[in-house]
Amino acid sequence: MDFSRYRDQRPNSSATRRAFASPAWPALLLGGLAIAAPARADNPGYDRPGLGFSPAVLDAGAMTVEQGLPSWSENRQGGIRSSQYSADSLLRLGLGNALELQFGTTPWNYMQQTGPGTDQRSVGRGDSSLALKLALPSSSTAFSWGLLANVEFTDGAAAFRNSQRQVSLGMVLSRQLDAADSLGTYADVLQAGSRQGFTVAVNRGHALTSTLSIYAEAAWQRQTGQGTGTVAGGGLAWMASRSVQLDASFRHHVSGQSDQWWAGLGASIYFGH
Q: For 129-155, how does the pLDDT look when each residue is reduced to its tens digit (9 = 90+)?
């Protein structure tokens, strides 16, 4: 079990990614869903929080909604301070045969750039994405791995739109060290026209209780058209019920070219069958 994507482990349960004007809408929506969502006992885990994704896929017909509430990033370059808030949304649908379909977007973004002679603000929706996840076979219950192929389109508002369609392929591997500790690795490659990017990350998770876990992670990254950089951070995930997870996480610049700060809150809801 990968504790950076926490799943319910309480008794009687299996072991276990922009149109609205206000950033408050995700919290209101999820609050209503949480009240309506019945408890399920076969939740395989969530892709939030942290870099990468869970190697587990949903059963056929099952669904999760994973929502940022929101995230915040900051960068400083050439005397310009850039801050962005994003409420990313991810819908996951189990297809069966170890496959899962994912739809992602960011219904709301707010970006502010300030500095000498500069004071710009932008609000709008971000690009949408379509992904397919495959859980790979393993002969060990302590080891799991998976692949995620993703296409990100150029349909967002001008301030938040990619210049080209992006395609990526990621792999995650997770090893359960003991009942409370896990170790994970994640790598992906991204192509946008003739430009390439990548991420290589490692994480270590620890379960504090049956419903609360923490993790730490470090990553080496290169965004398309930029140089490489390293970041480190961590976070926690709390199972508020068998079908609802709340999370908080952060990352900080260590070296090279990367965001100075990134932090986020999120909520995830599981709908079984």
A: 999 999 999 999 999 999 999 999 999
Report the Cα 137 to chain-centroid distance in Å.
23
Mean per-residue pLDDT over the chain, rounded? 87
Share of the chain above pLDDT 90, in %: 74
CATH architecture of 3-271: Beta Barrel (2.40)
Do residues 146 and 171 lie in contact, with contact meaning Cβ atoms separated by under 8 Å? yes
Cβ atoms of 87 and 73 within 8 Å: the answer is: no
How, if at all, do strands 195-207 and 212-222 pair? Answer: antiparallel
Q: Which residue has the tokens 């929706």?
A: 125
Q: Where are the domains of the chain?
A: 3-271
